[in-house]
Amino acid sequence: MNQTPIYQSRFEALNCCILIPTYNNEKTLGGVLQDLLLYTANILVVNDGSTDATRDILKDFQEINVHHFQENKGKGEALKHGFKVAEDLGYKYAITIDSDGQHYPDDLDIFLTQLEEKKEGTEILLVGDRNMGQDGIPGKSTTGNKFSNFWFLVVTGTQLTDTQSGYRLYPLKVVNNIKLYTNKFELEIEIIVKAAWRKVKVRNVPIKVFYEENRVTHFRPFWDITRITILYIWFVLVSFFYIHPRDTYQDFRKKGYKRFWKENIIKSQEPAHKKAAAIALGVFVGILPFWGLHTLLVFSLAAMFKLNKVVAFLFSNISIPPLIPFIIYASYQSGSLLTGRGFAWQLKPEDFDSTSDIFFGLWQYIIGSFALAGIAALLLWIVFYFLFSVTNQKQVIKP
């Protein structure tokens, strides 16, 4: 008599299944499936055109729902196919696990517990956190993960410590309603970014990981990192010129000017020095001579230094048309002082009567803009630090 899998009742109650995309993992696939069957029978495998013994191995697991691709299409295509099949089978959630043996089946409990505790009316997407700083994690994996984590924070405003783990829990209705364009490893990044943009709670959960020294991996460092980089470049453009402004505008409309100012700026839980730093950063970036890139820079730097992106963005708009001529003029004159040419109230055409004069004038402007930006940012930080400190003290004293 077959024993009921350990978590079968939980999987059934949550309408959840396990989805495994696999490609040429004949050494580990059988063991992974045998271990998972101890926990649940709700398993779906998508064989992504394997050319090894994968088909023969899967024949020994008749109780598992198996789908075969005739040729290799990429992990992303295997996942997309599996998501659609799983929803068609009536499942609401799918936990994805790689077939290379790096994941521990008993960590399924962590995903299921989070799903059981999920608040009604909210949706979650969970990504396993492999604790990439521990011993035994390949250096290239750690570097690539840090790169992805940073840009995920920039484009979504959500801090994750692991964005590349394949051990995840997906809400199928959400995922299948997202228009997805990638088809390889970068699809996992595309999903979590677009899910976060749809207000899905994307967060990490701690998991264990086992890295065998000679494990089979199909991740191609150069090409796959290049594809992920290109994807993030696109996400940066979309988030800076549409998503972030849209979210800020919607928040502003929902709260109104007074409430938006009080909740997002004045009464923020951040200490005074961080609120002042966000303003200083916005002004610093707004004065710099990187016209057309101010939004990109301010959001990237705000994310890097963990500052209020809304505040930084608002104050970066110091470079609006009425002020641009004054900023350029002040920057040029600042550069004139720094390069030893002295201060001149008037700029005359004869000052730029040669190519060398034009290039030197441009260089003078660039140097001056950085100096002006630094001085303005420092002064504003001092002023607003004082103002926010006084405001915070009044709020503490107020009964």
Automatic annotation (TrEMBL):
State the source organism's domain of life.
Bacteria
**Cross-referenced Pfam families, in alphabetical order?**
DUF2062, Glycos_transf_2
Keyword Endoplasmic reticulum attached: no
Cite the Glycosyltransferase 2-like domain residue spans from the record: 17-170
Tell me which residues make up the DUF2062 domain.
262-394
Q: Which InterPro entries match?
A: DUF2062 (IPR018639), Glyco_trans_2-like (IPR001173), Nucleotide-diphossugar_trans (IPR029044)
Arranged from A to Z, the UniProt key words for this protein are: Membrane, Transmembrane, Transmembrane helix
For this UniProt entry, which segments traverse the membrane?
A: 225-243, 276-299, 311-332, 362-388
Q: Which PANTHER family match?
A: DOLICHYL-PHOSPHATE BETA-GLUCOSYLTRANSFERASE, GLYCOSYL TRANSFERASE
Instruction: Please report the name of this protein according to its UniProt entry.
Output: DUF2062 domain-containing protein
